[in-house]
Write a structure and sequence with these properties.
1 helix, 124 residues, three-stranded antiparallel beta sheet, alpha+beta, single chain
């Protein structure tokens, strides 16, 4: 299985990987929000953030894992080296899927979308 050695500004942060079946990703993200999409929700508000996330999914257990969650700034240098079958670090967080909670969130989302589009939900 491939693993990712992840570095920030020359310092090794983590070696991430999952055995057998799953997903591992190294994500560098930048986002800018304005107005109502900001936390302040004021018309002239502007928010900007950059982050590095290293995480994945252990498929058989339906368990989300995360090794790194860092804020970034201009000038940061990120390096990911792909290696073959090296020992991996223990994830900092693990979260198993909760079917009851997932269903509750799905129902909430459907109700929210129905309201947004003016639809009426009918049950049998």
């Amino acid at each position: 299985m491939p693993v990712f050695h992840v570095y920030l500004n020359g310092k090794k942060l983590s070696t991430a990987g999952v055995s057998d079946t799953g997903v591992v990703g190294v994500h560098v993200t930048w986002v800018r929000r304005r107005g109502e999409h900001t936390r302040a929700k004021r018309p002239n508000s502007v928010e900007e953030e950059m982050s590095l996330d290293v995480g994945g999914l252990i498929t058989p257990a339906d368990e989300s894992v995360r090794w790194v969650e860092r804020k970034l700034k201009i000038g940061d240098e990120i390096r990911a080296v792909i290696a073959d079958d090296a020992p991996v670090d223990r994830p900092r967080t693990r979260k198993r899927s909760n079917l009851t909670e997932d269903l509750r969130q799905q129902k909430r989302y459907v109700k929210e979308m129905a309201k947004r589009f003016g639809w009426r939900i009918q049950t049998r």
